[in-house]
Structures are given as C-alpha cells and as structure tokens.
Amino acid sequence: MSEDEQSRQTFYEALGGAEGIRRIVESFYPKVQAHPLLGPLFPENIDPVIEKQYMFLSQFFGGPPLFSEAHGHPMMRARHLPFPITEERAKAWLGCMAQALEESGLDHKVQLAALERLKGPAYHFINS
Predict the structure, then answer these.
(1) Has this prediction a pTM greater than 0.85?
(2) Domain count, the chain
(3) How confident is the model at residue 81 (pLDDT cuts 50, 70, 90)?
(4) What sign results for the dihedral spanned by CA atoms 78, 82, 83, 84?
C-alpha cells in the first residue's frame, strides 16, 4: 500500500476493519477476565460484553455505527457509572488492550495511535 493510500485510510481500516476489530476484542477479553482488578467487574457470560465492545469499537474507530444502531447513543460514561472505576483499573484496562493490540500484529504506530485514542475514554470513566 502506498503512503498516499495509507493517508486516505480510515482508522477503522488501519485496524483491519470488522475482522481486525473482532480479533482485537476477542484477544482482549480473556486478559480482562484474568486480571484481578478487572475480572470481578464482568459477568461470567462475557459473550454479550464482547459483542457490545465489538460494536462500540467499530463505531469509535470510524467504522459503521453498530453500537448506536443496536443500543442508541453510546453514553459510555453513564453506562459505566454502576461500576467502581479507579485510575488503577483504567490503567489495567489500557494494559490489557495494549497486549491485545500487540498480539494483533498491526503496525506498531497503529497500535500506539489506537491506545492513545482509547486513553481519553478510559480515564473519563473514572468514578471512584
């Protein structure tokens, strides 16, 4: 792919589109479930959470508005208020995402850009 083609590519496309987002999310949640700070916040049946995260990240990174079409406006801070989210948990969440992105095999610059973009929401959700 030429540099010009890369510059016109959306972030969603740079992450591999639907297939790439799915791969990242499916790599991410086992790490979350195993994490001592994060695992207890999630239900035993993680499948609905995985699907919502896939829809949200697709939309968040410039792909189709799957989350909004299925669940309305994301209102992610409000949706996370019932859970005690500390700075330590936000960092842990980002750490799990960094591992999932690394395993994705994406270009390192794309991984770093995705993490940088996710820092805003991760820290915005802190409520404890």
Answers:
(1) yes
(2) 1
(3) low
(4) positive
